[in-house]
Amino acid sequence: MAGQDIEKLVKIIAKLPSLGTRSARRIVLHLIKKKESALLPLIEAMQGVADNIKTCDICGNFDTSSPCAICESAKRDKAIVCVVQDVADLWAMERSGFYHGQYHVLGGVLSALNGVAPEDLNIDSLFNRVSDGEIKEVILALPATIDGKITSHYLVSRLKDTVIKTTTLAQGIPVGAELDYMDEGTLQLALNSRKEI
Amino acid sequence: MAGQDIEKLVKIIAKLPSLGTRSARRIVLHLIKKKESALLPLIEAMQGVADNIKTCDICGNFDTSSPCAICESAKRDKAIVCVVQDVADLWAMERSGFYHGQYHVLGGVLSALNGVAPEDLNIDSLFNRVSDGEIKEVILALPATIDGKITSHYLVSRLKDTVIKTTTLAQGIPVGAELDYMDEGTLQLALNSRKEI
Judging by beta carbons within 10 Å of its beta carbon (0-12, 13-18, 19+), is residue A40 exposed, middle or buried? Predict the structure, then answer.
């Protein structure tokens, strides 16, 4: 293959999530062929992110300012905090457009297997926020996995001495799903949590 | 979603080949989280490619110099030219490591449907190289598609008045393939071109 610079770029791109060597090669060729319309704007946009994006000191979100736009916004309900595992989950909640409270990004979930303890996550800062007294409800929007459940359980046990309401996202059949394709656990849970209509 | 810079970068990355919005979001989050170890080296490598990579005036390959390292190399056979559709195909041939001649990148194949005529491709420059008299064999390594075949046919018809040998890559069953998964066309062709062992 030609050019040390090209090989180096292919190697770096191949390590990005959801990419491999083959797609990295395709991307690099595309970028070289469209230098003005693809490569240079991409470099500029990346430099913009590198220069301007910070982690919000309050909630852990990524934004151009800290505190972030959500923490600063007068339109968002300061009494509700939604606890998520990752900024990706915060973005997913924001895309739905139905949530108007605050967030708290843990940066992971507790995991005995991966050696993740409470002190490895942004948990202390959550309790600092809670102890300020402004927060009335904590919504736990953690993954529906065993580690996610354990983390929720841990947070509930530490919150139960406060007067704060703790809730969690409803579980059941996703919108548009075929029953046929649902796993047994989800079906059982949806049946147990059935609602009168 | 937070941050104009982030949204802009997601949109640009989502347009790259083999990526979409979902994987672009994952990549951008990864880059923000690993700014020092992923984002900054990526920007540097892209800037290196943007600054240094040129198109070879002789063969159409991408390299840090023009003529490229292959055209310049004293170790490569100057009497053989392998004609390929794209630089990606040149890379694929180089990875195999078995070819030691020169290349000529057409930049596409003739296509009535997409309105690609001979003057849209690097065909004239191929005949200029051929008329210099150093080239003794032209290997047509174009795609095994209808447009690829038409392009090969066109090149053969224009080369037939010269003394140059024109060859094409063998077609048949790929190494490691199960007959069961081969299409009828390939099986027929492999049967017709069978060899005594």
Answer: middle
Instruction: Please name the residue ranges forming H helices in A56-175.
Output: 69-72, 87-96, 124-131, 146-159
- Report DSSP letters for A87-99, one per residue: HHHHHHHHHHT--
State the nearest Cα–Cα gap between B156 and chain A, in angstroms. 28
Distance of CA A115 to the CA centre of its chain: 20
Q: Which residue has the tokens 């010269």?
A: B162
* Chain B residues in contact with A35 (beta carbon < 8 A): 50
Q: Is the pTM of this model over 0.90?
A: no
Write the pLDDT tens digit of every residue in B129-169. 998 889 999 999 999 899 999 999 999 999 888 878 999 98
A26 neighbors B88 (Cβ within 8 angstroms): yes
Q: At what angle do helices B40-52 and A4-14 cross, to 10 degrees?
A: 150
Q: For residues A4 and B49, is the Cβ–Cβ distance under 8 A?
A: no
Q: B91: which chain A residues are within 8 Å (Cβ-Cβ)?
A: 1-2, 25
CA distances from A30 to A38, B15, B64, B87, B186 (A): 8, 11, 17, 10, 30
Phi–psi pair at A73, nearest 5 degrees = -65, 130
Residue B151: name the closest of B98, B83, B73, B70 by CA.
B83
Window 120-179 of A, Cβ < 8 Å to B: none
Here the ipTM equals 0.84
Determine, for residues B53 and A5 on separate chains, whether the beta-carbon distance falls below 8 Å: yes
